[in-house]
Amino acid sequence: MDSIIVTGNGPLKGQIPIAGAKNACLTLMPATLLSEEPLTLTNAPRLSDIRTMTQLLQSLGAEVTSMQDGKVLAMSSHDIHNHTADYDIVRKMRASILVLGPMLARDGHAVVSLPGGCAIGARPVDLHLKALEAMGAELDLREGYVHAKAPGGLKGGIVDFPFVSVGATENALMAATLAKGTTVLKNAAREPEIVDLAQCLRKMGAQIEGEGTSTITIQGVDRLHGATHPVVTDRIELGTYMLAPAICGGEVELLGGRIDLVGAFCEKLDAAGIGIEETALGLKVTRGNGRVRAVDVTTEPFPGFPTDLQAQMMALLCTAEGVSVLEEKIFENRFMHAPELMRMGAKIDVHGGTARVTGVDRLKGAPVMATDLRASVSLILAGLAAEGETIVNRVYHLDRGYERVEEKLGAVGARIERVSGR
Ligand code: EPZ
User: Fold this and answer.
1) d(CA 167, CA 384)
2) Which domain holds residue 371?
3) CATH code (residue 299)
4) How many domains does the chain have?
5) Which residues participate in catalysis according to the annotation?
6) Is residue 180 located within the same domain as residue 248?
7) pLDDT score of 124
8) 160 and 292 together in one domain
9) pTM of the entire structure?
10) Per-residue CA distances from 161 to 80, 209, 369 (Å)
């Protein structure tokens, strides 16, 4: 298993290109199942999760051709001959559940393994299933699989989510495009990835209104046609790399960065004393001398502070002036980076979903363990400004969501290298 070695090396300077969004691409790819005509995605990120989704779609019979070094995905679902998403693929990546709605909408039947939990929580899919049942699906759970049927096709219905779920909104939105009649999604997720999916589906001929708000209305159509769609910028990669100069000092321009994708996050960076400026190429982040100010953070569904940036923000607050309180409201176990940061000298008290971080002058490099995607990158960020060497092990977690992290950070002056097989 690879490790990444980071050595504190002072202020950063230069530009970092931001890729297409992993979490948009992982829902745009299953949308190919909704049409027999080609769907081509541009600005796709080069990540292991995308390769896993590619394998899953190919196992169903879709053709997925990766071009231009992985930035273009040409897909065609003309011949879907297998309607079963096997456990051995689904267990590697929970987003595999997103083939359920499209397969059911296209052919009226699907068998998809339940994803099981992951490091950050149990992550059930009950809201996905309830949404499809509200559209007339008959679901039978047995031996770890969802056996779904919609003999006469899905019918429009009212889906009232008891709380916001990104994935359940995506599954329901895709399924509703081919349902007979009108579907209304209430308390729908408002994430930019939902907006991106709706815009792609509309290009394919879907009739959708209200994406980006809490109520999305879909008028089902008989069929969808092909399209070409650019994957929206990855707001989580953007926020992650904005924190690099915030932690190390210096000035870094994030190419392709958009302030509307990271509004709540930028408010917290601003409160902490970090400079953010919109430029013609993206966002420029600067941090002068002096310490960062402590801020309190509570994670919420979009447009609130994203849970996927909580670990990275904690890395910044470990050396802030004062005490910061972070509340994780989305997942039940998303502070696994805290004990690792404490190995580096951070002062963190975790009680349930609340972490109190008391800022220290500087962290000290240490061997640490990556436990999940965002925790692993928070350790790298902490290592950028720590005294001495930090070795982050099990970086396969990292490669799921960040392409070429050592190249991107190395290009702005970080001392970072990947060592294989430890
Ligand atoms: C998506 O996961 C993202 N993944 C996650 O990013 C992100 O953290 C999450 O949304 C929240 O923004 C992808 O888009 C591939 P949810 P998802 O359904 O859809 C509970 C990353 O690091 N829930 O909004 O699975 C669930 O357990 C990943 O890139 C149910 O109880 O998240 C969680 O506590 C991590 N029943 C909360 O709701 C359900 O049926 C929000 O989950 C569905 C969810």
Assistant:
1) 33
2) 3-19+233-419
3) 3.65.10.10
4) 2
5) 118
6) no
7) 85
8) no
9) 0.97
10) 30, 17, 36
